[in-house]
């Protein structure tokens, strides 16, 4: 059986990544869409042959509970709408994939997790890299200590945003934050799977070179992390700098991905030589992995707790910035948020 996915929000990511990927998935397919823009309905019906009864808008969305063709609702809306639609999807009895960042704050993450637990549905984050081979190789280096213990890790994630001041990503009410919530979550993730540990503390600083453009949201943030093993790390995230990299210094060598979190192709090297993996759509792999979690009880590679953990780190970073870089303790159970 192939599970039916309904995409909620037909913006850039649904249009150019998720819908095309769903043409190649083995365990799920594009069964429906939920859109607030009536003109898009016809386009999607024609392009993907979606039955009219599987098209919803934001108002009649809750009636999706009666539609047996939809097994999974994938929330691909501006961040401020993630919690509302994820919770409504769970209440409709549908499994949920929620895009990153999980929500506007930790409280909303809890509400999503609770709603999915209560409804007995599965919850996964749109963290596509956990299904991606270069990232899995990094996790293997860490697990098998290929280069010994990790001593220092750094990760950058950013891009230059320069010509679209009206976009929702720069509107705090819709985004919940700037570069940190949009791209910084990738750098935070890199640090965690690149060390195999949750951090125990963070201090952070914010920089702005174009305050007239970034009126409400952070432009650039750096943050320093400590880990229980003694490893330490730094991240840089920005809406002003094109950067996309993970680099780890270990006891006996190093490993690096650059780029580390773009769609395709990732690339990597180690002190032993280059890495070379088959390139496939990360979104295809991610959605198939989640479908296999539902169908065959395969591991949930990016559970809701992982999204919540990252939001807890985001909140600690903003708190540190508001306290002029003061170190914030982070108290996670060792395995919290890992799959
Ligand atoms: P987008 O701006 O291209 O699309 C947003 C969609 O939301 C549009 O269809 C728009 O019509 C709809 N929308 C509803 N209410 C809106 C409002 N008040 N303001 C603006 N748009 C509104 O955004 P996107 O790039 O598709 O991002 C959507 C989500 O997916 C975000 O949470 C983003 O972080 C996430 N995303 C994840 C990845 C990834 O690699 N995992 C990549 C891109 C985006």
UniProtKB/TrEMBL annotation:
<dbReference type="Pfam" id="PF01408">
    <property type="entry name" value="GFO_IDH_MocA"/>
</dbReference>
<feature type="domain" description="Gfo/Idh/MocA-like oxidoreductase N-terminal">
    <location>
        <begin position="4"/>
        <end position="127"/>
    </location>
</feature>
<keyword id="KW-0732">Signal</keyword>
<dbReference type="InterPro" id="IPR008354">
    <property type="entry name" value="Glc-Fru_OxRdtase_bac"/>
</dbReference>
<dbReference type="Pfam" id="PF22725">
    <property type="entry name" value="GFO_IDH_MocA_C3"/>
</dbReference>
<keyword id="KW-0560">Oxidoreductase</keyword>
<feature type="domain" description="GFO/IDH/MocA-like oxidoreductase">
    <location>
        <begin position="136"/>
        <end position="255"/>
    </location>
</feature>
<dbReference type="InterPro" id="IPR036291">
    <property type="entry name" value="NAD(P)-bd_dom_sf"/>
</dbReference>
<dbReference type="InterPro" id="IPR000683">
    <property type="entry name" value="Gfo/Idh/MocA-like_OxRdtase_N"/>
</dbReference>
<protein>
    <submittedName>
        <fullName>Gfo/Idh/MocA family oxidoreductase</fullName>
    </submittedName>
</protein>
<dbReference type="InterPro" id="IPR050463">
    <property type="entry name" value="Gfo/Idh/MocA_oxidrdct_glycsds"/>
</dbReference>
<dbReference type="InterPro" id="IPR055170">
    <property type="entry name" value="GFO_IDH_MocA-like_dom"/>
</dbReference>
């Amino acid at each position: 059986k192939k599970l039916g996915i309904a995409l909620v929000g037909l913006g850039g990511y649904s249009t150019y990544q998720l819908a095309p990927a769903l043409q190649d998935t083995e365990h799920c397919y594009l069964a429906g869409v939920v859109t607030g823009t009536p003109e898009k309905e016809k386009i999607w019906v024609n392009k993907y042959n979606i039955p009219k009864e599987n098209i919803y808008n934001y108002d009649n969305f809750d009636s999706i509970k009666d539609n047996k063709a939809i097994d999974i609702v994938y929330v691909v809306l501006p961040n401020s709408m993630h919690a509302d639609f994820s919770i409504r999807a769970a209440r409709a009895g549908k499994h949920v994939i929620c895009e990153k960042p999980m929500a506007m704050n930790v409280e909303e993450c809890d509400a999503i997790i609770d709603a999915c637990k209560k409804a007995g549905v599965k919850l996964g984050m749109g963290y596509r890299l956990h299904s991606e081979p270069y990232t899995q190789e990094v996790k293997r280096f860490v697990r098998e200590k290929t280069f010994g213990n990790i001593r220092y890790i750094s990760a950058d994630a950013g891009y230059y945003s320069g010509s679209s001041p009206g976009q929702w990503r720069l509107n705090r009410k819709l985004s919940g934050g700037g570069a940190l919530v949009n791209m910084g979550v990738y750098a935070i993730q890199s640090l965690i799977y690149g060390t195999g540990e949750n951090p125990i503390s963070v201090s952070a600083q914010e920089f702005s070179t174009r305050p007239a453009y970034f009126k409400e949201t952070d432009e650039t943030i750096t943050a320093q992390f400590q880990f229980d093993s003694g490893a330490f790390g730094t991240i840089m995230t920005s809406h002003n700098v094109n950067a996309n990299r993970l680099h780890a210094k270990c006891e006996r060598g190093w490993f690096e991905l650059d780029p580390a979190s773009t769609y395709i192709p990732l690339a990597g090297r180690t002190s032993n030589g280059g890495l070379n993996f088959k390139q496939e759509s990360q979104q295809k792999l991610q959605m198939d992995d989640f479908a296999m979690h539902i169908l065959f009880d395969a591991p949930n590679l990016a559970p809701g707790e992982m999204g919540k953990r990252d939001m807890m780190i985001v909140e600690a970073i903003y708190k540190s910035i508001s306290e002029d870089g003061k170190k914030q303790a982070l108290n996670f159970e060792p395995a919290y948020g890992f799959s």
